[in-house]
Amino acid sequence: MARSLLEKLKELERTAGVRRVSEAAAPGGEARESSPLARVNRPESPREAELADAGFQAIPTPHGPVWVRETGFDLCTHYGGRPFADFLSCDLGRLSRLAKADLAPERMVFYDIEATGLGHGGGTVPFLHALGYFADDEFRVAQYFVPDYAAEGAAVRLLAERFAQKDGVIVTYNGKSYDWPLFVNRCVLYGLRPPEPAHLDLLHPARRLWKGVVGRMKLADVEGVLGVKREGDVPGREAPLRYFAYVEGAPLASMEDVFAHNLRDVCTLARLALEIAEALEERRAWSHAAPHVGLATWFDAWREWESADAQFRRAVEQEDADWRARWLFSLFLKRRGQWEEASAIWLELANDFPHRPEPLVEVAKYFEHRRRDLAKALEAAQAAQARMDGAAREYGEIARRIERIRRKLEREAACQADARRLL
Question: pTM of the prediction?
Answer without folding.
Answer: 0.86
